[in-house]
Amino acid sequence: MKTVLVTGATSGIGKATAELLARQGNRIIICGRRAEVLESLKTEWSAFAEIFILKFDVRNLEEVENAINSLPETWKNIDVLINNAGNAHGLEPLLAGNTEDWDSMIDGNVKGLLYVSKTIIPGMKKRNAGHIINISSVAARQTYINGVVYCATKKAVDVISEGMRLELTEFGVRVTNIQPGAVETDFSLVRFKGDNERAATVYAGYEALKAEDIADAIAYCVNAPKHVTVSDMTIYPSAQSEPRTIYRK
Fold this sequence. Notes:
- The chain is an alpha/beta fold.
- It has one domain: 3-Layer(aba) Sandwich (Rossmann fold).
- The chain has eight helices and nine strands.
- It has helices at about 10-25, 35-45, 60-70, 100-125, 150-170, 185-190, 195-200, 210-225, and strands at about 5, 25-30, 50-55, 80-85, 130-135, 175-180, 230-235, 240, 245.
- The protein has a seven-stranded parallel beta sheet with strand order 3-2-1-4-5-6-7, with helices on both faces.
- The chain is globular.
- Keywords: Oxidoreductase.
- InterPro entries: NAD(P)-bd_dom_sf, Sc_DH/Rdtase_CS, SDR_fam.
- Belongs to the short-chain dehydrogenases/reductases (SDR) family.
- It comes from Chryseobacterium populi.
């Protein structure tokens, strides 16, 4: 049984991963900004697992540190950190980009990951054990038009994952970087600021990945033997050949 902390656990990949790992017998710390959703998930999942909730915004260092440092002693030894929280906002040329959207993506996808990791890594190093899983994207592999800033943030996640592995392997800490392709979650709804019609077109004409597919992949990495590190994993739906190309019926 492991103690697992999942950021962005109230929806999508984070929620699916937290639930799967809970059902596999682990203790789960679910993190997010929506207290009512966190409480609801705790009530539901407590029927089969130990669940602890932390409400904070990964973009706020003070909130991150205060929340994680407030964990009871019995929850402080985090075995697995899943840096899932992140966002995409807007899909337009760089010169037409909204700088508030840029800040949100950089603060959430890059700085938030760093803030949470910096708070948890010391404990892992001290225990000479741990596993960090960072959720990147195939957008890190190939920049696409109108998505420059989002792609840049996910490329940063790849680089940070590599750097973490270089710095932490000698301390027994495994680092895994996951690059999902097109996954049908609220991702596009958030990117297009609630425009359901536009979001639906992203997943039209083919079978996209589901959040549960990525959760399965993460669980495989978490459950791999101690001597095995899955360093990088790229996952596409069968209809997608590379980040920019999806074959639709």
